[in-house]
Specification:
The complex is a heterodimer of chains A (277) and B (328).
Chain A (H helix, E strand, L loop, with lengths): L5 H25 L4 H6 L1 H11 L14 E4 L5 H11 L39 H14 L6 E6 H5 L1 H12 L5 E7 L2 E2 L2 E2 H4 L5 H7 L3 E6 L3 H12 L6 E6 L22 H13 L1
Parallel strand pairs in A: 1-2, 2-3, 3-7, 6-7
Antiparallel strand pairs in A: 4-5
Helix pairs in contact in A: 1-3, 1-4, 1-11, 3-4, 3-10, 5-7
Chain B lengths: L3 E4 L5 H15 L3 E5 L3 H4 L2 H6 L4 E3 L4 H13 L3 E7 H7 L1 H10 L5 E5 L17 H6 L5 E3 L4 H13 L4 E4 L7 E3 L11 E4 L5 E4 L4 H13 L5 E4 L2 E3 L3 H11 L2 E8 L4 H12 L4 E6 L10 H7 L4 H23 L1
Parallel strand pairs in B: 2-3, 2-4, 4-5, 5-7, 6-7, 10-11, 10-13, 13-14
Antiparallel strand pairs in B: 1-8, 6-12, 9-11
Classes of the chains: A alpha/beta (277), B alpha/beta (328).
């Protein structure tokens, strides 16, 4: 057990709530985006950006910064919110998401957006890219950690498991994988569309140290992230059980909200619910 | 004019590349090399033996290997990502599009066994679409060195060039053309033979054949210009347009499909800037077959010296018809 002060937990919850409010606003304003998978990742992103990662928003290219790869690029709005909250760019930029000439693209773009380490959009890339960062950093004796957030859909793509083999071969302990396992994807429940269980066994057999947590509980997330840093024999994965659409009751556990936009009454109902949280 | 002299060699193109990469690895410690279980074929094995700590054999994980290379580039290395050209550009196509081209990462993609040079393994192993695929990607530079000298000299240039590069390398021993003093430049073509009757534009392994075809044509009084375009993208537009203006007829030659490769790239420029008759020597839009050796296979499938000569004769005839009809 690692000690995490109550103020930190409270701060994480505040940041996560703001992520959800920002995402709701952004999706509604733009009439496009992916609320479900953005909501499921809120606490994880808040823990990474407001506690775990060694970063300096004033120096997005600081060589020793920790790296974060959003392999599930469709949660772009959540990433943009946490980057804005952390000070990488003004929160007012969020209003221009998807506008012509704006730096915030539909999916993350490393060239355009400060703080975005890697462009993403199609699933399956993050694990391999992280392994490459780790292998390169070893040659330079680098002192930073790389975090990767993957989704259900990521882990259905074969290339992700190719990357997992590479990570296991080189025992890339300098990276931590977090799986935002909400069990819902675009077309339906993941366990119906393409069952992946038993995932713990799969990860173990691929050479990973596995932790299973509730991905909305800040203390469990923070503990798991700390524990992952202490594993020096194999790469670590945190299987974070989450709820797609978490925080808005009518969006929860529904594939409909993978990439849907709320109507005006739905927007206000969701807003009310999130503000009360 | 560049000093040239077509001569056969026993040294395969891939060996020139592999040796150059190993030698350059000593100079530039930022170079890392990845291969997908074919290092003893692509000959990145030379680099692997000298710098095992900077060599990563990732098995048959081509798509993931490209992404691993992307990660290394993000962390400041210069990754040379190697496997057979067809696997690299087809199996890892989305990785290349999204994580190399779109993300504009400094990854060097080296496609070995390009064209039909892996004659004995047949059409599954041939790479005849790679130029078309790679040149349609924004940010990508596409290079096909003509001979061993050019392949070897390109290695440092590719490494020191900032941005994504795709370079194709033949499995075969292709005729040497350039002499030891030749220094290629990315983005620049070179005139290797002067002439006014037509221009032969070659990329990659076809240069020796083009020069021999030009010799045959000269014997009957037809002097054709020959250009080597090692960089297909960004293409040396000025050199191509000048050839069209000054010689009025163009023939392209490539060990690649006639769809979308060098022929397509040159035709696009001619159509937009200076229309002129063009003939394309390349592989027809059909799957080919296994052969007894690369030269026999190339001869049988439309890439022979005689095919080049015939294409030049056709294009000159078309130029004359155009001139004649305009004259009336």
């Amino acid at each position: 057990m690692h000690l995490h002060p109550p103020q930190l937990v409270e701060q994480i919850q505040t940041v996560a709530r703001q992520i959800r409010l920002d995402v709701l606003d952004m999706v509604y304003r733009r009439q496009a985006g992916h609320p479900g998978g953005s909501f499921s990742a809120a606490e994880i992103l808040a823990c990474l950006y407001f506690h775990q990662m060694k970063i300096d928003p004033a120096r997005p290219d600081w060589p020793e910064r920790d790296r974060f790869l959003l392999s599930k690029g469709h949660a772009a709005a959540a990433l943009y919110s946490v980057l804005a909250q952390r000070g990488y760019f003004p929160a007012s930029d969020l209003e221009k998401w998807g506008h012509l000439g704006a730096h915030l693209q539909g999916h993350p773009d490393r060239i355009k957006t400060p703080g975005v380490e890697m462009s993403s959009g199609f699933l399956g890339h993050g694990i391999s890219i992280a392994a490459g960062i780790v292998l390169a950093q070893r040659l330079d004796g680098g002192r930073f950690h790389t975090y990767v957030l993957v989704s259900d859909g990521d882990m259905q793509s074969g290339v992700a498991w190719e990357g997992a083999m590479t990570a296991a071969k080189y025992r890339t302990t300098e990276m931590t994988l977090i799986m935002d396992y909400n069990d819902v994807q675009l077309d339906g429940a993941s366990h119906d569309i393409m069952p992946m269980e038993p995932l713990v066994d799969k990860w173990r057999s691929f050479g990973f140290a596995v932790q299973e947590i509730n991905g909305h509980n800040p203390i469990q997330i923070l503990d798991a992230l700390d524990t992952a840093l202490e594993i020096h024999s194999q790469p670590a994965v945190i299987l974070a059980h989450t709820t797609k659409g978490k925080g808005v009751s009518f969006m929860e556990n529904s594939s409909k909200w993978h990439g849907a936009v709320p109507t005006e009454p739905q927007y206000w109902a969701a807003r009310l619910e999130l503000e009360g949280a | 004019m560049i000093s040239i002299n077509v001569r056969n060699t026993d040294i395969p193109h891939r060996q020139a590349y592999g040796e150059s990469l190993a030698a350059y690895g000593d100079i530039n410690k930022n170079v890392v090399v990845l291969d997908a279980d074919v290092s003893s074929s692509t000959l990145t094995s030379y680099f692997a033996r000298r710098y095992p700590e900077r060599f990563f054999n990732l098995g048959v994980t081509e798509a993931s290997m490209v992404d691993v290379g992307v990660g290394m580039a993000l962390a400041g290395k210069i990754p040379f990502v190697n496997t057979f050209a067809a696997l690299l550009t087809l199996r890892a196509c989305e990785q290349i599009r999204t994580c190399v081209a779109y993300a504009n990462t400094n990854v060097k993609l080296i496609g070995g066994y390009a064209g039909v040079s892996d004659y004995k393994d047949g059409p599954t192993h041939f790479s005849v679409n790679d130029i078309a695929l790679m040149r349609s990607m924004p940010n990508m530079t596409v290079i096909a060195p003509a001979d061993n000298i050019e392949a070897a000299r390109m290695v440092p240039l590719v490494a020191e060039f900032e941005g994504p590069v795709y370079m194709r390398i033949s499995r075969a021993a292709v005729p040497d053309v350039f002499d030891k003093d030749y220094v290629p430049q990315i983005g620049k073509g070179v005139v290797v033979r002067i002439g006014q009757a037509a221009t032969l534009i070659s990329t990659g392994s076809m240069l020796g054949r083009c020069l021999l075809a030009a010799d045959l044509l000269a014997q009957v009084g037809v002097e054709v210009r020959v250009i080597n375009l090692a960089t297909i993208k960004p293409i040396d537009q000025e050199l191509v347009v000048r050839a069209a203006v000054e010689t009025g007829a163009i023939v392209t030659a490539e060990e690649h499909s006639i769809l979308g490769g060098l022929g397509g790239a040159v035709a696009e420029i001619l159509a937009l800037l200076h229309p002129a008759p063009i003939e394309m020597v390349g592989l027809a839009d059909t799957f080919t077959e296994t052969g007894p050796d690369p030269d026999t296979l190339m001869d049988a499938w439309g890439l022979s010296i005689n095919d080049i000569v015939q294409a030049v004769n056709r294009v000159i005839l078309r130029k004359q018809i155009v001139v004649y009809s305009l004259g009336r």
